[in-house]
Amino acid sequence: MSGIKVSRRGALALAGAGVAGVAGVAAGAGALVRGAVDASAGQQPDHPSGAVPFYGEHQAGITTPAQDRLHFVAFDVVTKDRARLVDLLSEWSAAAARMTAGADAGVIGAVSGAPEAPPDDTGEALGLPPAGLTLTVGFGPTLFRDADGRDRFGIADRRPAALVELPRFPGDALRPEISGGDLCVQACANDPQVAVHAIRNLARIGMGVVTVRWSQLGFGRTSSTSRDQATPRNLFGFKDGTANLKAEDAELLRQQLWVQPGDGAAWLEGGSYLVTRKIRMTIETWDRTSLAEQEAVVGRTKGTGAPLGASGEFDPIDLAATGPDGTPRIPRDSHVRLAHPDSNSGARLLRRGYNFVDGSDGLGRLDAGLFFMAYQRDPRRQFVPIQTQLARNDAMNEYLRHVSSGLFACPPGVRDAGDFWGRTLFT
Predict the structure, then answer these.
(1) What CA–CA distance (Å, rounded) separates 17 from 85?
(2) Whole-prediction pTM value?
């Protein structure tokens, strides 16, 4: 995809590609849009305004280099008609292919249709480049059986064993109205308006079939998913995600990220599981904590991000190292020690979290923190044991409140224009 730059203003001329009977659309224009979205999944945009390929073996937005902005939404399915749900997933896939290429959500567009009819794109992204937009879909446990145990769509027997409601961890203060969901869509981009435009249009297309359950805006990625990216900082001021799985770690991704043959859900092979957690940080309390204590809580230095007792950010973490007094250089209750693979039977996660600030809480405190997102091959063997240990022992818990939680099975990628999100589940 290197070098392709398709603006939405220019894409209006391409909007009717592939729709028979739409007047004034040149055949060559449709080929340009298809070329923009049908490139190899291994290629990445060469600058933040470029397009990320939509079609591929895996969904974009997982190992894609993490963008700067997020709009995440969880939907409840309000129809009981399986065919309507399948049709929606097909329509969503087509719209996603267009929007990630820089085109309008619909084939007619925001301004080219009949004046008497509503546009099939909302128009707020006209003139904006694709901005690295990716759209990633997941299915929650309640899609397979709802809260009343009903199998609305005849897929209960296809629910993976790993797709179960997450346990309640010590210290959880979860709000049901901003947790769970039948479906989720993760929109990441380097322009917040592009991400919001994508979610807005998918919600518009889904009216009558799905309804928004909850959503979250995020800024300032808190993880790197490529070795070409610098490690960002979270709202505690520390580098975050230094030891994250990276797109270049092919063998580790096979072991830790992608669902494999034999894992128990053939339709999900090549996909992954997504855990979301909205974690409010008690910023004001943290800001009154000494630097030495902050570093002991995290297990890294605040300036360089080096493990305590080391000098460089990427120096190996030596959990056995002790200081002159014989105590561990990395405290036993530090976040780094408790989250380390050596403390969790080798389990690792691919994190794609974002900072959030949702105004104030009415008491003069920022409603701010981390919207944690982590992809993995099996949450029962990865997120659940890691979070159980953190919830019980992590010194950082004094400054955190987990208020939202979700688990979703993200299917494999959409292979071509004849494919759609969830085809392997529903057919």
Answers:
(1) 24
(2) 0.89
